[in-house]
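Attaching the record inline, Q. Sequence:
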Amino acid sequence: MQILVTGGAGYIGSHACKRLLQDGHDVVVLDNLYRGHAEAIERLRTMDGVTGDRLVFHEGDVADRALLDRIFAQHSIDAVLHFAALAYVRESVDEPLNYYRANTAAAVELIGAMSSAGVPRFVFSSTCATYGEAPPKLIPIREDCPQEPINPYGWSKLFIERMLRDTQTALGRAGKPVPGIAMLRYFNVAGCDPDGLVGEDHDPETHLIPIVLQVALGTREKLTVFGTDHATPDGTCVRDYIHVSDLVDAHVAVMNSLEPGQCRAYNLGNGSGYSIRQIVEAARRVTGHAIPTADGPRHPGDPPTLFCDASLIEREVGWKPRITDIDEIIGTAWRWFESNPSGYAGA
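Structure, as predicted:
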């Protein structure tokens, strides 16, 4: 198949491109490089069997309808994997219009261009942030948990889910081909390609595991733990972590099983949680470094515990995570950070 990957120069998108190329697909990448890395694309070009026509890169924005129409006219796209987005929760609170513009408004153009081109499959990178603050009685979170976001990032993604459903309905009423769509709601993605070809390089970095590993590298002085008095066994927040390779496997499995007209929503996680202190202790074991910490105040609105029930995708698609040990997850990230302490910039 020929697959369009938006955001393919980013952390998750580059891992997805690698897997798709390994599976024998041709990949078309659209990325504006705002937070993606051209070096990730160049690294993917070094893979065995990846010739110029198997990996095509278009630098540009998902909001550019004219560019999208040219891409769909130039390539016979069989599926779209849509990763491109702004994805910092706290930034979305400070800059809500940027998030609605880059995520929601841009998706209007992508969905419209895809629908006009008759693309039969669309797999959307959604988020657990669409659930908002799920009550403790609803944890582990299932797909039928009420979706009530508490920040613009979550809303910007939930609006896209709504647009996809409404577009299917409208196409069906018009007697036009109805694509199969899937909304994959991520929890916390972590780890890196075990082969070290692509990895995680964010600026700014806000994710717990990379920050912990930057402390181990000495590029940060310490980790500040925001909130030590939560109603959890050790007082720190508990979260669900899924390895990026497992996440990509889920996208591929869903893409391969998706039929025209279907509409699916799946949680992607390990189905259990680790506390911040457990993450730090695991990183100390993996790296052999002390990793100093300091206690700080809670972030407003941080729920004490969040993890998902991911059994639906296992029942319907046959996917379940393979890399579930937190030491192994952190170990793959540590190998990347040790080899690329300055990220792609140091390559």
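The chain has one domain: 2-346. The longest strand covers residues 121-127.

More tomorrow.
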